[in-house]
Amino acid sequence: MENRDEAPPQGVTGKVNDGAPDIEVVARVLGGDGEAFGILIRRYEPGLLRFATRMLGNPDAAADAVAESLVRAYRHLAQCRDPGRLRSWLYRITGNRCRSHLARRHTNDISLSDVPAPALADGSDTWAVLERGEQVALVERALAALPAEKREAFVLKHVEGMSYEEMATVTGARIPTLKMRVHRAREALLAALEEVVR
Amino acid sequence: MSPIDPRLQEALDGERDPGDLPVDLREAYARLNAATQILKATPPVSVASRVMAEIRQNPAPVQGEGPGRRLIQWLGRPRAVTVRLRPVWTLALAAGLAAVLVLQWRRGGPAPGVAQGIANFVGQFPGAQSVEVVGSFNDWSRGMLHLNDDDGDGIWHAKAVLPAGQHEYMFVVDGERWVPDPLAGRYVDDGFGAGQQNSVLIVRPVSAQP
After folding, report:
1. Is residue B11 domain-resident?
2. What is the mean predicted confidence (pLDDT) over B60-86?
3. CATH number of the domain within which B123 lies
4. In this complex, which of B3, B13, B64 lies closest to A187 when CB atoms are compared?
5. Of B1, B31, B64, the CB nearest to A188
6. Chain A contact for B103, CB < 8 A?
7. Per the CB < 8 Å rule, is B63 touching A140?
8. What pTM was estimated for this model as a whole?
9. Is residue B79 part of a domain?
């Protein structure tokens, strides 16, 4: 996986698009320029939507969770204790929202009915010969089968490219715990992929 | 599910060159890598217009730089002012100021209203350069309620008139470190996950105090 610890250094994250660092945009919003919050949305919405979609397994529920999280972030922006790490704060709010959503389902797991089963011709296919759609369905289903905590750790690490330090800020879990979750998630995913594609 | 080879975990953690892995582990590495690339696809939707519509409909209160705040800051900024007064007027002015100060001192500071009470904030922060309180009573805005440590013993104090009822708050030390009040006795989750807590303060109205 090529995106190891891709969390950009402080001050760089906030300069993607629209120029101004997060800390300046946050100051503008807190000063009454509500429209400036749109800069932060454009900057972080793609990642938050991807994260929530992987956590909830359902694009509509993910869009709701991200929209609610962004509105909540706007309302409580003054409580962001370190605007230089706004990305971590937004992921923390969104992750919390996703957990609440999963808790309302009385299970931390994604319903596999939300994730289409791959239509494989037979068990002798290899990964390379699978159609793209089959690969996507297979991977999404394997991820959905993971317990929520392992799914979250894997997605933050390998999909969102966070360092373990940033993951600890986002989840509140300790770094050794997160490493263990990522390792277990890799094992489960690999086992699921190898079981179907031999 | 069986544990995967530690060398593969190391490669996935960026601690080992995947090119050095045996062929079977390299295949597993490539398979997980391919799965990750699939998961990196960004959903083709946006909630930006929905969020901005909600924000425009219910804008948050301005925290720092509104016109009123700017006026207060302008008034609070030090400026050189030259006033030429006759000595007799100077004495009268000084006497008037002294009378106001004495009256204020006898009252013992700002008087709370019926539905207000006095909150005492105390914190031990040896070596701190500044300590302030932010909370639900001031919209978590910085720069509004500073604690003092006049004798330099590391114990910081502030007194404030607040609306009666329950408030959440935190200390901000040296302008950057947010810490709960260790003496608060009650705490609540700050609502943003990660298990961080705000301190809780209950202010009783002066009318209820003996």
Report:
1. yes
2. 63
3. 2.60.40.10
4. B3
5. B1
6. no
7. no
8. 0.63
9. no
Q: What Å distances lie between residue B48 and A4, A43, A176, B84, B146, CA to CA?
A: 29, 11, 36, 59, 38
Q: How many CB atoms lie within 10 A of CB B117?
A: 20
Q: Are residues B128 and B188 in the same domain?
A: yes
Distance of CA A70 to the CA centre of its chain: 14
Condensed to tens digits (0 to 9), the pLDDT of residues A151-192 reads 999 999 999 999 999 999 999 899 999 999 999 999 999 998
CB A45 within 8 A of CB B48: yes
Total number of domains constituting chain B: 3
The Cα of B114 is separated from the nearest Cα of chain A by a number of Å equal to 29
d(CA A1, CA A5): 10
Let me know whether B98 and B131 are in one domain: no
A43 touches chain B (CB under 8 A): no
Tokens, residue A169: 């800020």
Asked if ipTM goes beyond 0.90, one says no
The answer on B128 and B51 residing in a single domain is no
CB contact A81 to B (< 8 Å): yes
pLDDT tens digits, residue range B154-206?
889 998 888 888 888 989 888 778 888 888 888 887 766 556 788 888 888 87
Q: Same domain for B107 and B122?
A: no
Q: Does B67 reside within a domain?
A: no
Whether residue B1 and residue A187 make contact (CB cut-off 8 A), yes or no, is: yes
Residue A189 pairs in a beta bridge with: none
pLDDT in tens, A49-80: 999 999 999 999 999 999 999 999 998 898 88
List all residues of chain A from 12 to 41 with a beta carbon under 8 Å from chain B. 27, 30-32, 34-35, 37-38, 41
Nearest to A59 among B43, B66, B193 (CB): B43
Please indicate, yes or no, whether residues B138 and B192 belong to a single structural domain of this protein.
Answer: yes
Please tell me whether residues B46 and B104 are part of one structural domain.
Answer: no
CB of A2 within 8 Å of any CB in chain B?
yes
Range of the domain at B162: 116-208
Q: What is the average per-residue pLDDT within A12-25?
A: 69
- Rounded Cα gap, residues B129 and B175, in angstroms: 9
Whether B69 is covered by a domain: the verdict is no
